[in-house]
Design brief:
By secondary structure, this protein is mainly alpha-helical. It contains 14 helices and no strands. It has a domain of 60 residues.
């Protein structure tokens, strides 16, 4: 008969090994070694490890290393989410909102997104803020939307920075402040978000929230136009009339060479 100490040691060893397998599976997934990823993550998922369940769900959802199986992906997400995995909770929230693999259910979407948001998941915070802004699955509440957008924006989520800027510019749920809106639009634009680049170009052109600057307006409008923002494309001709040919040439070159800050995942 095994002593209590031996049983405890064996349980601890098994847990350590399972977590090591999960870490190896995630590493293999990043390296596109899908056979190893599946083997290690499947072992972890079979033992009920939420992180393994989540990443195995990702494999099934995308059909990488396995045949795509949305039902299996959702099953694994549910298992991981029920154990508090914020990534799985976020995925479930998005899927319920989209009606992907399940019947669309905004109340269920808001429930899972709220759980993930309360755990500090920046993308979930941005998504739940959208639901509060639109009144989808929850009662419309601009102040709560602002609250979650701020949390997400602080994590560098460019969509949250942009959406928060819009609410501030319109004075919804927060005092109107064009300068604060510009600052947030600029943060999102620095991350290559085309709608934000268009807004920054407009605000530089009109001197809204920032000193008017035709050169900066032309630069940001050029970046936005490269991503097919129609308003920016229309603005360029008027801006070019305020600049020399040499200036516009240099600004176009700068726009071609510009690289955005890596957006938050």
């Amino acid at each position: 008969m095994l002593t209590t100490k031996i049983v405890t040691a064996l349980l601890f060893a098994g847990t350590t090994l399972a977590f090591a397998d999960t870490a190896a599976g995630i590493k293999a997934l990043d390296a596109k070694d899908y056979a190893t990823a599946y083997r290690e993550l499947k072992a972890g998922a079979d033992q009920g490890i939420p992180e393994a369940e989540f990443y195995l769900g990702v494999m099934y959802a995308r059909g990488i290393g396995v045949e795509q199986d949305i039902s299996e992906a959702m099953r694994l997400y549910q298992l991981a989410a029920a154990q508090g995995n914020a990534q799985a909770q976020f995925r479930l929230g998005v899927r319920y909102a989209q009606g992907w693999g399940v019947q669309q259910n905004m109340a269920e979407a808001s429930r899972w997104l709220q759980m993930a948001a309360n755990q500090g998941d920046g993308r979930a915070q941005e998504n739940i803020a959208q639901l509060y802004e639109d009144g989808a699955g929850v009662q419309q509440d601009y102040k709560t939307a602002v609250y979650y957008y701020k949390l997400s924006a602080a994590q560098g989520v460019r969509e949250a920075q942009y959406n928060l800027a819009e609410l501030i510019e319109k004075g919804k749920g927060v005092k109107r402040d064009d300068a604060a809106a510009f600052k947030l639009y600029k943060q999102a634009a620095n991350r290559g978000y085309a709608p934000a680049e268009e807004k920054v170009g407009r605000m530089y052109a009109t001197g809204t929230g920032v000193a008017a600057d035709p050169a900066q307006a032309y630069f940001w409008s050029t970046l936005a136009a490269k991503q097919n923002e129609k308003n920016a494309e229309k603005r360029l001709e008027a801006l070019a009339a305020k600049l020399s040919a040499e200036q516009t040439s240099k600004l176009k070159q700068s726009a071609d060479e510009w690289k955005p800050i890596l957006a938050a995942k």
